[in-house]
Each structure stands twice: as C-alpha cells, then as structure tokens.
Amino acid sequence: MSFRQMEYLLAVVEEASFTRAAQRLSVSQPALSHQIRALERHVGHPLLERLPDTVRLTPMGRAYLPHAIAALHSADEAVHVARPRGEMARIGLRIAALYSIALGIIPPAVLIWRRRYPDSHVELLEFGNSADLANLMSAGGIDVAVSAAPLHWDGPVRTLGREELVVVLSKDDPVAADGRRRVRLAELASRPWVLYTPDNGLAGVVAQACSTAGFIARPAVHTHHTSTAVQLAAAGLGPALVPRNMIEADFGGVQLEPDPPVHRELVAFTTTAEVPHISAFIDILAEHGAIRSRRPPGPPASPEAVEDLPRVGDDEGFGVA
C-alpha cells in the first residue's frame, strides 16, 4: 500500500469515474485501475463498486476512505512542517461538506476567506451524507465539516441556519403554467419523481416530506448529485425537491415553494473550537454563507465588508451537540 494508491482512490471517488480521475492525475486509465486493484488486494476487500455510469464506494470503501484521507493529510502537513519557517506563512484549510452545501453555500465563504488570506491553501471534499463527514473528522482528515442536523457528533457544533428546499419543474409543466408560486406536494403524488440515491443525505429529507404529504414518491430516476437533480427536473423527467441555494438564475426550469415548507438545519462541526483559523472560517461561514430565504444571491462581499468581519479569536459561538 502506498500514498499514491490512496491518492488515486480519492481521485476516483471524487470524480466518480476512472476515466476522469485518470485525466485529472495525468496517468493512463489501465495504470490507475492497476493501482486501485493492488490497493484492494492489500486491504483484502473491494473498495469500489464499478457501475455502468458511475463508480461508488463499497461498504468497506466507505470505512477505509476517511483513514486514507487522514494519512494523506498528515503526510502533506509533515512536508509543510519540514519547510523553512519563512514558508509557513500560508494557512491551510481543509473543508468537507455535503454535495449540495459544497456547491450552494460554501463558495461565498471561501471567497471571503481567500481575500483575507490570499496565500492560504483551501481544499474542499464533497460527500453524500453526514456519517461520512463525521468519520472523516474523527480520523483527523479535515479541519471543519459542514453538514445537516441532526448530527451524531460529541464535539463542538455551530448552527449556521436553515436551508430551504423548493420544488423544481419544467417550464411547460401544467402545475407551473398558471404562474403560481407555491404547490402542495400532494398535487404531485401521482407523478414519477427525480429522487436521490440512498447515499445522498437529501434522500431522507425528500422521503419524509412526501410521507408528511401522504404519499410515497415513485422514481422516474435516481441521481447521486443534487445539481443533476435540478437539471433532470428542469428537463421534465419529474418534480424534484432541491435546496434553493443550488439553483442558478438561468437554470431553465421553474421553482415553486412547497406547501407546507420543507427545510433542513445546517451546522458546522470540528474537533476543537480553539484553533483560531478554523473558528474564524466558521464565523465567516455563519455570517456570509449563502443560506438565504426567498432572496436572490447578491454580489460578492466587498473588500471593505471583509475587513469588518470578526477576526481570529473573536466569539466562536460553538455549542456541543
């Protein structure tokens, strides 16, 4: 087993494709596949499930990945510690988040962080469910995780806000044709839906919302990625419940507010609230992350606004779940 093999495994998981991972790593696909198979032989179990249109972790792979990431992270940190002190000025920040949060909420906070610390290195890992984030945090592979509540975590947890979900339909859908802004989920009970695979944390949210409305949604298609659900629903494959923050202004479909509203609470968690740069980033995330209700995203924060943000060491606002 080598660090290269673990790096290759991480690339395949993040790209959900051997082809894209090989392109990203600038290696041939056969060489990449050979290294993954060698790693699986060393572990003694398959780590990846190879499907026709995607690649995903097996149960053993899900258990192994946090430790592989932690090992890579530790090796990277060791390199920086060994460098001359003058090269230690940059601040490294390693973030993990659920797919929908990484795309819809994290970017504004990272932008402000980079303006404050332009020489810092930020790495963002994306996962489908909160359990993977907690496992990775426990293994020491990340500095901060952003997830949905409730969360089984004994360390510091910071509430960030409430993320609203909306119903996405195609522009020519009869329900959207009358110009209404709200829709009862029960009106869509007979439709086939765009649903999430079980490893996406939104799968349970959607199932609960539909159950509350008195029905079990039947699938037109299941998708792993939340952004793909937006496009599939906008194309007319069926309604989808997606976070409002995921939707671009020109996404090509129609969004309606579900009646009753559907939402989930978002939190940030870490192993300690006492590391200054970690608590500072969570402060930025809580104040400027794009967790907004019924309001289009505005322009990026100005440099003046960045200067007014709480500085490292200010009130952290953490609690313990």
Automatic annotation (TrEMBL):
Pfam families: HTH_1, LysR_substrate
Start and end residues of each HTH lysR-type domain: 1-58
Transmembrane segment boundaries: 91-113
Keywords: DNA-binding, Membrane, Transcription, Transcription regulation, Transmembrane, Transmembrane helix
InterPro entries in the cross-refs: LysR_HTH_N (IPR000847), LysR_subst-bd (IPR005119), WH-like_DNA-bd_sf (IPR036388), WH_DNA-bd_sf (IPR036390)
Entry keyword Transcription: yes
Keyword Cell wall biogenesis/degradation assigned: no
Top-level taxonomic group: Bacteria
Sequence segments annotated as region (Disordered): 292-321
Family that this chain belongs to: Belongs to the LysR transcriptional regulatory family.
Designated name of the protein: LysR family transcriptional regulator
Natural source organism: Actinoallomurus acaciae
